[in-house]
């Protein structure tokens, strides 16, 4: 029966490997692992109770972190094989490789300074058989290190692998003491880095000073995630800052609150005196101008509109055979010579002759001829007018 173990290397990185239970490996033992084209040397730091089945070797394994900032990488869908438990000879060779790795790190730093690359070297790792050198570094952005790889390959005459990691992974590998006085969480027990934003600090009523909410790595503290859900539950029954509230001492506004003790600080109106009251004894006041219009108010306004519409509606119809509709006042007739709104003078009633049905309209002899169009007779942007011209 195969058992899957978590292997940690001396540079802080790690991966998963399996072996048969007949080897009798336990957590804390050192072993030799067969990888792609080389042998590696590492320590067992974890044993998985439910190894992936034999039929799915490509199943990815989630990244995890244990003591010392171990990283169980899931970049490759492959679980390597443990060849044997490390002997005294293997341990001696591993210590020799660690000395060689420190020398390789110093040499790499000299080439980095010569090329002027913006990168910070963290550590170096020699494989067990010396066929691969892995150098980890951190940088602000992407770094073109192709020329550096060529120089290092010629210098050490072996394969070189440069791996860029983030600042949180760098802190987990190097370790340190947090502001609380205890070792960093990412070095001791934190298994993954959750997404953290400034909104979490605001919801916990913490100071937004960068030095207060940032950790050693320069990012937001991972511990902001621990009690975030609990603070959200406590905030549901608490008034917010700036709200108008009433307490036993009078009315005032909330200037401060403590979510853990469930108490608020209120500054009374027209006074500089402040009082501290439990949240259960404080009620939020909504003035009339802040109230939402609805319910009875909408019904009242609707009835007022309806009554106003009924009053403005004219009475018409016949009741009991009598026409009760009021007579509309007739407009006064226009006086002769009175100008129309458009400046045209109204004609007199006797000027226009009455034309019987069937009689054709005669052209006006006194009407001056219409001047020709400037666009050649076309209208509407050059369209030809096919309607017959009126006789002159």
Describe the model:
With 392 residues, the chain is an alpha+beta fold. Among the domains are: 2-86, no CATH class; 91-171, GMP Synthetase, Chain A, domain 3 (2-Layer Sandwich); 198-235, no CATH class; 244-288. 22% of the residues lie in helices and 22% in strands. Helix 1 crosses helix 2 (146-156).
Beginning-to-end CA distance, first to last residue: 114 Å
| Mean pLDDT, all residues | 76
Helix-strand makeup class = alpha+beta
The level of helicity is: 10-25%
Which descriptors apply to this entry?
392 residues; alpha+beta; GMP Synthetase, Chain A, domain 3; 5-stranded mixed β-barrel; 5-stranded antiparallel beta sheet; 16 strands; 22% helix; flat
Q: How is the secondary structure organized here?
A:
Blueprint: E1 2-8, E2 13-20, E3 30-34, E4 39-47, E5 71-72, E6 80-85, H1 88-115, E7 120-126, E8 132-138, H2 146-156, E9 159-164, H3 167-174, H4 185-188, H5 198-203, H6 210-213, H7 228-235, E10 244-247, E11 250-258, E12 263-268, E13 274-278, E14 283-284, H8 296-312, E15 318-319, E16 322-323
Parallel strand pairs: 2-5, 2-6, 8-9
Antiparallel strand pairs: 1-2, 1-4, 3-4, 3-6, 7-8, 10-11, 10-14, 11-12, 12-13, 15-16
Helix pairs in contact: 1-2
